[in-house]
Design goal:
single chain, about 625 residues, five-stranded antiparallel beta sheet, about 10% strand, five-stranded parallel beta sheet, about 45% helix, elongated
Length: about 625
Amino acid sequence: MISYIKGILEDMSPGMVVVDNHGIGYQMMVPMRGESFPKIGQEIKIYTHMHVREDDVSLFGFLSKEEKEAFDDEFDDDENVEKDIPNTAVNRWLFNKDTIDLVLINLMREGLKVEGGDKLGKTIIFARNSKHAKAIVERFQKLFPEKGSHFIKQIDYSIKESEHLIEQFEEKDKMPQIAVSVDMLDTGIDVPEILNLVFFKKVRSYAKFCQMIGRGTRLCKDLLGPGMDKEKFLIFDYCNNFEYFRVNPHGKDSGFVETLSEKIFLCKARIARELQDTDYQKDEDFREYRNTLVKELIQAISDLNNESFIVKHHLKYVLRYREQKSWDILETEAMADLKKHIAPIIEAEKENELARRFDYLMYSIELAMLERKNLSKNIGAVVGIAEKLSLMQDSVPQIKEQKYILDKVQTNEFWEKAFILEMDVVREALRDLIQFLPKKTQRIVYTDFADQVIEYQENTPIEMGNRLENYRKKVEFYLKEHQDNMAVRKLRNNQPLQKSDMQELEKILWQELGSKEDYTKEYGDTPVGILVRKITGMDQQAANEAFNEFLNEEKLNADQIRFVRLIVDYISVNGMIEDRRVMMDEPFRSVGSIGQIFENDMDIAMKIMTVIDQIKQNAEVTV
């Protein structure tokens, strides 16, 4: 039996210390009075109590012999627990604030989360009695004031609005998130979203124990994200109930997972570190972007509540990295500080989770670009998202507003030339559109893309897969991006093409962007000039000039002028009227047919038709 350990305090966290004794590190659970402990690196003597289970050995530490003896005395009082520390003296040791703090901090740190790991899943804490439940709620609000007064609620027969609180708890998106129950939630409620059960009392009825465990066994679709169903729940047993009933616990080890907020913070910090390189600092745009990132990171740290227990534990680092000067040069030590002491306590932003997941995807791409890593899967995800959104632009105005960006990111040319500043433009443009995607497609932003990048050699081309090889998209993007090309400009301005112009367009479409076979496969026998005009449209001014004599004709009545203006608008968008029958449909039909409107001015109608035909001919014939 180990009576005490004397050595150097190597590490300390809430409820836990590590003492180095001649090269061996002893990890011990301790009371939460951190102010009583010496500083890391100083000598310490801790009196110990060893707790032995069939599958585990734990050390509990105390700063004084008296504290340890008092603790041992309490355990000697309970003959039914076989000297099992977590299972005894609930009215004394488990009831005191240090123990409650330890339980709550462990729950918040290790409990299963939702919303990208930023929010603790629905949780029931089974308390011994009303007084115990009240103490748990009070300690939680002291430790985590940033969660607000509704995050945790006491639910027992002493609370008048207990039935209302249960109804609120049963709603997925309503508070409380933690229900501290005394008997009322042991049986009979149905909350599929429950992910954590905390047994903070002894249970000796096997039937009741099974019913209590049953609160977590309900399945729940899409709880963790689209297509990401609840597959497990976690049990915290602080009173040795499983050993008492010899029941094998399910979901015992949740594992540590970085939250979405933590991932985004670290990703932005790593980008800021890469951008401090001299080559980037010479460029004003890169300097400005780094300054923006740093400002956002400092703001996230400044938003932390100094009164929060968790923040207090890291306060030295919080105060340091609230200062601009700490970000001027980010060395390895600074990055380690940010990863260990800052990122894990960053609060989740109160906005659309899908938008933040897309932020993470785009920041991951930026970081991979700076660190010269392969981007294939990340880029493929963005392109896939853009493709799905493009299909919805006719029904969702917000998506249609971003058509230019959506088209752009679906081309090889964009990804071959784009760098981090262009990535941030895409991020800003599309982040709020992810919510419109079907649930099955939304799943793509739930991938941890930071883990998908791999090293690649310098000058290795970025591979984006077949999805970017769509010939039609390449053609459309090229023509819209190169309207200053001589031949394209002539077509947009209704000017006749030279033979050399047509040859240039054929070379671009049949050689540079693909083959003639690709062209035929996509567009059939459509003449090249007609295709270009249909894609690029006609300049509005050029269209007005083509019909100028009619628009200024004093003889035309209001309906006739309106009809001509509809023709101008149609041609400016579609490039030409390829088939006259379109003038029998909307928007022309609401005004009337050309025969009706120009019934007494058929000569003018014939002239209008001649201009329409000439515009089309200018796109087909060379001079």
